[in-house]
Amino acid sequence: MALPATYYHPKTSTASKAPLEVIDLLAATPSSVPFATRVRELSLNPTLQQKVLQQESGLPSVPEASSNSCRHLTVADEKELATEMLLLRHRFTELVFKSGKFRQAALTIIQNIYLFKNRKIFFGTPHSVSSSDERQQALHLFSTPPSTSSLCLANTFQHLILARVWNRILSQATDKDLQEQPYVELHAVVEKLNTIRNIYILLTTGLVKKLATRINAIYKESVSFDDAIQIGSFGIARAAYRYHPSSGIRFSTYAANWVFKEIQRQSLDGRLIRISTHTVEQFSKAAKNSETENFNKFLTRIESATTTGDLLASGYASLSSHAAASDDLSLATDLESRELRAILLQAIDHLLSDKCSDIIKRKYGFPPYQDQEQSVIAISKVYGVTRGSIYQLEQAALKKLHQHLQSV
């Protein structure tokens, strides 16, 4: 399943302020060229090309008796796609290097590299070279007018640097600039990068489904299985831009971490009371290493955060952590739960807009959708908008409900 193209118009949006999660996916104008045509333009080997086109069109494998792995990435496929991705990143870096305006954008990013967590700039920089030395080399390279239009492969931008440079270029461009040849060439490279990204996504649908069944129960409280698959595809995309066989592992192994991280991030961000990633990681580590003290410590944090989340999910849990932990479902506790449910439903009806109210009711199975929880995908189809729009409305509604419940 391909990701939708996103594009920040420099005059109508704030590209420079776009979140890193969006910048990372390389914004581009929606292409008028069919996906199948863009795949053919990559000139991949015939076997891989046929596999991609069959998967995209939903056609059965030919022959049917062939191995079940025919629609999956083979070692040879991974090497070819990773090589194409690296060569396109190198082409992007060369185009930036040749243009004075683009070099200035690159210098702005490189000058501020110390602000980033991932400070590696070039693909081929040896591990023995420090971050500060690499930064000085990069500043010298892009501040000097080029005597040649070519760069060695080692000086290819790492993906995160490339994404930030591209975002910077877009944020500074005018409508007239976007029609000029240097911008057109650069956009064509970005479009090819995104095409390869989508090929990875198409050929790893089985992997994402398998990984989605293995997510922690904490995350399942916030995202459905269908949502986890959709979110996981973003993890595949982030891995696709970065993967290279020189890492010494298969793409499936490399991408699994990105898929889990993406599901983890979006599920925790969508909770009524958020649980930090650090808490979940430390809880898992303590459970694995049988560290009783840390296990109980982080379990308490998770349970306290889960109480209010469960209230929204089921409508029956108590906001009192004592009542939630008690096994004695007395009449008083039952009455308290009903009262809290009534408060919650009243807040949903009166505090939220009609659209947000309906989204919350559909997502969490409140009347008139009792026991019929709907995924974000299903809700987005009802309203004819993107999944991201539904997520934004849901999170805004949850924030408003959270503030109200704290004051009750």
Describe the structure.
This protein is mostly helical and 408 residues long. The chain is globular. Residues 4-17, 62-70 and 307-333 have low confidence and may be disordered. It folds into three domains: 15-203, no CATH class; 213-269, no CATH class; 306-407, Arc Repressor Mutant, subunit A, CATH 1.10.10.10. The chain is built from 20 helices and no strands. It has helices spanning 20-23, 35-41, 46-57, 75-98, 100-111, 131-143, 159-172, 175-178, 181-202, 205-212, 217-220, 225-242, 251-269, 277-288, 292-314, 321-325, 331-351, 354-364, 376-383, 387-407. Helix content is 64%, strand content 0%.
Please describe the topology of this protein:
Blueprint: H1 20-23, H2 35-41, H3 46-57, H4 75-98, H5 100-111, H6 131-143, H7 159-172, H8 175-178, H9 181-202, H10 205-212, H11 217-220, H12 225-242, H13 251-269, H14 277-288, H15 292-314, H16 321-325, H17 331-351, H18 354-364, H19 376-383, H20 387-407
Helix pairs in contact: 4-5, 4-9, 5-6, 5-7, 9-12, 10-12, 10-13, 12-13, 14-15, 17-20, 18-20, 19-20
Low confidence ranges: 4-17, 62-70, 307-333
Helix share bin:
55-70%
Proportion of residues in extended strands: under 5%
Name the structural class: mainly alpha
> End-to-end distance, in Å?
44 Å
List the total number of helices: 20
What is the overall pLDDT average? 79
What summary fits the major beta sheet?
Answer: none
Number of domains: 3
What's the SSE pattern?
HHHHHHHHHHHHHHHHHHHH
Please tally the β strands and state the result: 0
Using the alpha-carbon principal axes, give the shape. globular
Structural Rg: 24 Å
